Amino acid sequence: MEDNIHAPTVSSGPTSGEAPRDLAKLSMTDLMQEKERIEEELSALSSVLGSHGVNMNTTLTTFDGYPRDDIDIAQIRTIRTKIIRLRNDHKDTMTHLEKKVHEQFTNLQRAQSSTTADNSNGTNGARSDSNDTSLSNAGALGPAFARVNSVVPASPADQAGLKAGDAIRSFGTVNWINHERLTKVAELVQQNEGRAVSVKVIRKDELGSSADLDLELTPRRDWGGRGLLGCHLVPL
After folding, report:
1. 205: burial class by Cβ within 10 Å (0-12, 13-18, 19+)?
2. Whole-angstrom Cα distance, residue 156 to residue 97?
3. Domain boundaries, the chain
4. φ, ψ for residue 149, nearest 5 deg
5. Fewer beta carbons within 10 angstroms: which end of the chain, N or C?
6. pLDDT at 122 (0 to 100)
7. What's the rounded Cα separation, in Å, for the pair 90 and 200?
8. What contacts 204, CB < 8 A, 6 or more positions away?
9. What is the per-residue pLDDT for 39?
10. C-alpha distances in angstroms, 53 versus 46, 74, 76?
11. Are 88 and 50 in contact, with CB atoms under 8 Å apart?
12. Which pTM does this prediction carry?
């Protein structure tokens, strides 16, 4: 009988028989697609574990050390191994993606600084605050990552000005890079109950024109409905 049957140890590596991709050579778009692919696969594998009534930490042995006979141990161990590898792959992908975003944002800042210098005709303008710019701000310049599916009247979301159909570009420090299929939005909401959170949205009018809006949303429980926001977000 194997020891620690419920805790397999694996090294980082691809989840299939394919050769590992050189993440450093991928474009930012390709890295985003890789990130989404990994997150979707992790979600699917976690659902399979849940269908067995177990998670990554559930013991697969009885109280006296024998393998449980009420679950498919072989399948569960295989799935856990894939999840561990995928988590390592996700971490590597995020590292390369954040580097790409930082490079793009730095190039954008240089271009803007150059344009400002040309327009100032040699005068001393206001100093750029690029030194205070974080990676989360760089991410906020990217595409929307979620859509507002519905808003309950008189809810915190309604009072903040959110409308169904709005596309979320950033929710506090959460953006298209780090939202992890909206789990980080839920965490941020729980951590900021009673405190205003900056939300950047894209809103289209009836003619199809888009406008960027900066809203402030305060999560709270005492508004008379369910949840802290009173709106439903779906990932894009």
Report:
1. exposed
2. 33
3. 28-113, 146-235
4. -85, -35
5. N
6. 53
7. 26
8. 165, 210, 211
9. 87
10. 11, 15, 10
11. no
12. 0.51
